[in-house]
Each structure stands twice: as structure tokens, then as C-alpha cells.
Design brief:
It is a single chain. The protein is an alpha+beta fold. It has one domain: Mog1/PsbP, alpha/beta/alpha sandwich (Protein Transport Mog1p, Chain A, 3-Layer(aba) Sandwich). The chain is built from three helices and ten strands, in the order βββββααββββαβ. The chain has a seven-stranded antiparallel β-sheet. Strands 1-2-10 form a three-stranded antiparallel β-sheet. Strand 4 and strand 5 form a beta hairpin. It is globular, with a radius of gyration of 15 Å. The chain starts with 5 loop residues before the first strand and ends with a strand. Its main location: plastid. One of its GO terms (molecular function) is calcium ion binding. This is PsbP domain-containing protein 4, chloroplastic-like isoform X4. It is found in: Plastid, Chloroplast thylakoid membrane.
């Protein structure tokens, strides 16, 4: 899905991040962004703390961040090759992890929830407001992946289509 003016970022296999003992390596993921989006260093002090694996931003258009969290924080009886549907239905999943992403309860903020499937893996796609944010969630290995694309009110209005395209491009490889 590389269209003109866009590029695909793929998480390098050897990028560090594993968050402690007993972790399998992070299964790589990929997504597409318009030219002009750049990787931003992740600070351990970030909201979301150690679980933010990656940040990208464009000062004009918006920003994104990827959270990679242990699935067992959300459900106990999950295999080592977790599927998002084992964690629960979309409404249960957004209720459980949405507050980690936006810092508050998501009740009444979920504008839409959809399920997409790519290469046999299900992805839950949410749009929330306020704050303006797209959240794409899936599971792989023993981790939950949350791909979050957000922007200010003005960025949202001006770049909504691109931000949605970024959100929908997320894949665990």
C-alpha cells in the first residue's frame, strides 16, 4: 500500500524493547505515513511509560504512538499466540485498554468500532472523541498492540482522511 507521497515504516527485528525477563521478542509491525512524518524519541516518562514502543509525528498533521503491552494484563487464560478476540469483544477491549491510551474512561467517547481482518489476524479499529484519536488494536505472541493516531482539533479537521489511512495501515507482520 505504498501510494505516492507515503512510505512504510517497519519495526526493525533487532530494535530493543522486550520489557523484562520472560518476554518473547516483539513481533515486528508496519504502517504507512505520509512523507514528512518522522520518528520521535520515546521517553520513559511518557504517559504509557515503558510500554510505548515507538512514536512518530508531523507538527502540522498529527502524531502516533504504538503501545505494546502484555496480554495477560487483560486476561489470564490466553495462549502464547494470542488473538485479539480471545481478549474479548471490541467494546470490552476498548473499555479495558482505552483509559491507558487516553488517560481517562472511554465511556461515551467511542464514535465507532469496526473489525477488520488481514492475513487471518483480526484488528479492532476504534474512533474516539474527545480526544480525537484512532486506535487500532490487535494481539500477537503474548502481547497486545495498540496503534494510536491522534491530532489537535484543527489537525483532525484538516487531515482526517490521512490520519484514518495511517490508522488503518497498521499490521503485525
Amino acid at each position: 500500500m505504498s501510494k505516492a507521497g507515503w512510505r512504510t515504516y517497519r519495526r526493525p527485528d533487532d530494535k530493543s524493547g522486550g520489557h523484562g525477563v520472560g518476554w518473547s521478542p516483539i513481533i515486528p509491525y508496519a504502517f504507512s505515513v505520509p512523507d514528512g512524518w518522522e520518528e520521535v524519541p520515546v521517553s520513559i516518562a511518557d504517559l504509557g511509560g515503558t510500554e510505548i514502543d515507538l512514536r512518530f509525528a508531523n507538527s502540522q498533521e498529527g502524531r502516533l504512538f504504538v503501545i505494546v503491552a502484555p496480554v495477560r494484563r487483560f486476561a489470564d487464560n490466553i495462549s502464547d499466540d494470542a488473538k485479539i478476540e480471545e481478549i474479548g469483544e471490541p467494546d470490552k477491549v476498548i473499555g479495558a485498554f482505552g483509559p491507558e491510551v487516553i488517560g481517562e474512561n472511554v465511556e461515551g467517547k467511542v464514535l465507532s468500532a469496526q473489525v477488520a481482518e488481514h492475513s487471518g489476524r483480526k484488528y479492532y479499529q476504534f474512533e474516539l472523541e474527545p480526544p480525537h484519536i484512532f486506535i487500532t488494536a490487535t494481539a500477537a505472541g503474548n502481547r497486545l498492540y495498540l496503534f494510536n493516531v491522534t491530532g489537535s482539533g484543527l489537525q483532525w479537521k484538516r487531515h482526517y482522511k490521512d490520519l484514518k489511512t495511517i490508522a488503518e495501515s497498521f499490521r503485525v507482520i
